[in-house]
Amino acid sequence: MLASRLQGIPPTIFSEMSALAVRTQSVNLGQGFPDVDGPPDVIARAVAALESGLNQYAPGPGVPALRQAVARHQQRHYGLDLDPDSEVVVTTGCTEGIAAALLGLVDPGDEVVVLEPYYDSYTAMIQMAGGVRRPVTLRGPDFRLDVDELRAAVTPRARFLLLNSPHNPTGTVLTRAELQAVADVAIEHDLVVITDEVYEHLVYDGHEHVPLATLPGMFERTLSLSSVGKSYSFTGWKVGWATGPAALVGAVLAAKQWLTFTSGSPLQPAVAFALDEEPDFPSRLAADLQQRRDLLCSGLAAVGLDVRVPEGTYFATTDIGRLGWKDGLSFCLALPERAGVVAIPTQGFHDSDAGDQLVRWAFCKQPDVIEDGLRRLAAADLSA
Ligand code: GLN
Fold it and tell me: Is the pLDDT of residue 1 over 90?
């Protein structure tokens, strides 16, 4: 019993693989969520909000203190000046931001150019909005943007570009030059760009996250999405935001009011506190994650996997071809039994066959958990 707008969209692989991890008592290196919470003083703020009567509906666009804190965050990190009343809206995680942006902006038949591998909610929401996806493949081993392929994907029906950098699952952080190429294409073809920047602070080795909205001529055509989840290790809080010109933010709000009406009120002042009073937490987290990235990547290489060391995000991508496997889903379904470990096959995030042998591993876990996973992999027969 499914409406046509949901036909052909498989259940999200993340929930499926996390359930498999629980069922098989495997080390879960699949779904990206940390196993240590964010700052205790931020949690204390949320508790205080719950106990001090902030338990009724928030205003539609979000609690003013959070909208103001988001505007200050965009100014502090990127030099962007936003009006917190018209250019910021709070969403229930970035996932709702993606949904509301696509439902609020895309008309049936509009083409949405999207990087492949794509995050699974993009394709689901493009389809639910009646849009048509036009993938541009980031190909291994380096997973860089091919600008010619981007240009070729833009047809006269293209109206939107949905851009994710730092990119899940590949870990690519688009360079300023790549972003400039995206900006050139967007301006030339009058595209609106929706950017998913949830890993904005989780970049390694001195790589820099550059919001597309900061490039010349781009603010007025860019809707930027982010959230507290990854930056502050509160993925379960589901607090995100959309920022950009009032017309684009207004479209998000127009759809959002019919999705969740407003987002949960007690967590919003706590997130405002995090952004204002714990501004250095995300960079400390990134420094720590970089070490865990290295631990995971060297261990995966040691068991015979071709690893791409990511520039950002929670994830490392491997090619399992060398172990004789033809497809990542079979590998990931066999892995709990063979090794007691769960990872994510990313072939479902492609229209092309470029991802058939790609598997994603999360390193946002405590070092002893990563080590346990690696020990299990080292002890197992991983060949096809
Ligand atoms: N963003 C997380 C990941 O990529 C998962 C979030 C979700 O399960 N929807 O693992």
Answer: no
Structure confidence at residue 360 (pLDDT): 98
292 has pLDDT over 90: yes
Q: What is the DSSP string of 298-336?
A: HHHHHTT-EEE--SBSSEEEEE-GGGT-S-HHHHHHHHH
**CA nearest ligand 1 atom 9, residue:** 14
Burial of 175 (0-12, 13-18, 19+ CB in 10 A): middle
Q: If you average pLDDT over residues 153-165, what whole number do you get?
A: 98
Report which of 289, 313, 278 is spatially closest to residue 76, judged by C-alpha positions.
278
Question: Which residue has 């091919």 as its token pair?
Answer: 146
Atom of ligand 1 nearest to the CA of 14: 8
Q: Cα of 33 to ligand 1 centre, how many Å?
A: 7
Stated pTM of the model: 0.97
Q: What is the mean pLDDT of residues 209-215?
A: 98
How far apart CA 62 and CA 60 sit, in angstroms, is 5
Residue 329's nearest CA partner among 360, 351, 304 is 360
Return the SS3 of 163.
strand
Helix axes 328-339, 13-24, angle to 10 degrees: 20
Sorted by where each starts, the structural domains of the chain and their CATH numbers stand as 4-38+281-379 (3.90.1150.10), 40-277 (3.40.640.10)
- In the predicted model, is pLDDT for residue 195 greater than 90? yes
Pocket (CB within 6 angstroms of ligand 1) = 12, 14, 31-32, 168
